[in-house]
Design goal:
Blueprint: E1 7-8, E2 11-12, H1 16-22, H2 35-38, E3 42-43, E4 48-49, E5 59-61, E6 69-73, E7 78-82, H3 93-115
Length: 116
């Protein structure tokens, strides 16, 4: 639904303006800490974003505390999920999955670009 700007199978489920708001870079000068910040992510309305100074981010993610990490990259033209579950909240599941996301993104983007 995020990738398709609020639609599913042609039906509008969420207003496009609401989806777009999730990518608004509201805090371009803020300093963030934690696993998301280590991966170059900033924070917007209910999601982490990566847009390097842009105000309208097309990369949106929301890593979970136990490692489940979905993301949407509309600029590159794909979405993905790393599904895992760490044993405990303090076991570093988020840091592990965010680091894996950073590793696989260039590989996925190269594959998607070749397939176009």
């Amino acid at each position: 639904v995020l990738f398709h700007r609020g639609t599913y199978r042609g039906e509008r489920l969420i207003e496009e303006a609401t989806i777009d708001r999730m990518g608004d870079n509201l805090y371009p000068d803020a300093t963030f800490v934690g696993p998301g910040a280590a991966a170059g992510l900033g924070y917007s309305w209910c999601s982490w974003i990566a847009c390097e100074g842009q105000m309208d981010c097309q990369f949106i993610t929301s890593p979970g505390a136990f490692g489940y990490t979905p993301w949407v990259d509309r600029d590159a033209g794909y979405y993905a999920v790393l599904a895992m579950e760490a044993d405990a909240l303090d076991s570093g599941g988020t840091a592990f999955s965010v680091a894996r996301m950073v590793e696989v993104r260039p590989l996925i983007e190269a594959f998607v670009a070749r397939e176009r």
